[in-house]
Design brief:
The chain starts with a strand and ends in a 54-residue tail after the last helix. The protein is an alpha+beta fold. The chain is elongated and about 85 Å long. Helices cover about 15% and strands about 25% of the residues.
């Protein structure tokens, strides 16, 4: 099991829960120190007992909450539970971020081995994450078409080119420079 949270500096943290008790609080001696005035010096603890994890509130003034419910003493916690201590929210997960990433990379590799291309896989991932909103939004007009023709590259007038000057029939329109790429 892993305890995930984002610290005050915006850095995501992933802490593996083991058989060792874990303390959370404002004190520097806490296993997970939190810089928050609403957190007690030793706010709560997490321990493993008989294969289950338990959270114990250590009489913290502002309380400890699991899934929005204040913990009075000790409560069993499981994967998916949200633990709030001061302004920090912890999520108890069954796998670490690295394990999740390795599983995702393996799934993409398997799809590619089965013949799917990267673009197809990416499209499937995006469609899974962002549901189509065709029914919830009114239809919007398509973006304005760009005029057909060659794309222009604007080069400042003071730019110096090493190419020879073009002949009269090859002269580009005023304000544009013709660039030829030699292989």
């Amino acid at each position: 099991m892993h305890l995930r949270y984002i610290n005050k500096l915006g850095i995501p943290k992933d802490i593996e829960l083991t058989g060792e008790p874990l303390s959370i609080g404002r004190s520097r001696e806490a296993d997970i120190p939190l810089l928050d005035d609403k957190v007690s010096r030793v706010h709560c603890g997490i321990r493993l007992s008989e294969g289950q994890f338990y959270l114990k509130d250590l009489k913290a003034r502002n309380g400890t909450f699991v899934n929005g419910v204040r913990v009075e003493d000790t409560v069993k916690i499981k994967a998916g539970d949200r633990i709030q201590i001061g302004s920090t929210i912890f999520v108890l997960e069954s796998a670490s971020t690295q394990e999740d990433a390795a599983r995702g990379i393996g799934a993409v590799q398997n799809s590619m081995d089965d013949g799917k291309g990267y673009s197809t896989i990416l499209k499937e991932i995006v469609e899974d994450i962002v549901p189509t909103e065709a029914t919830s939004k009114p239809a919007q007009p398509p973006p304005a078409e760009k005029p057909a023709g060659r794309p222009a590259i604007k080069v400042p007038a003071h730019a110096k080119l090493d190419a020879p000057a073009p002949s009269a029939e090859e002269k580009p329109a005023p304000g544009k420079i013709k660039i030829t790429i030699k292989k």
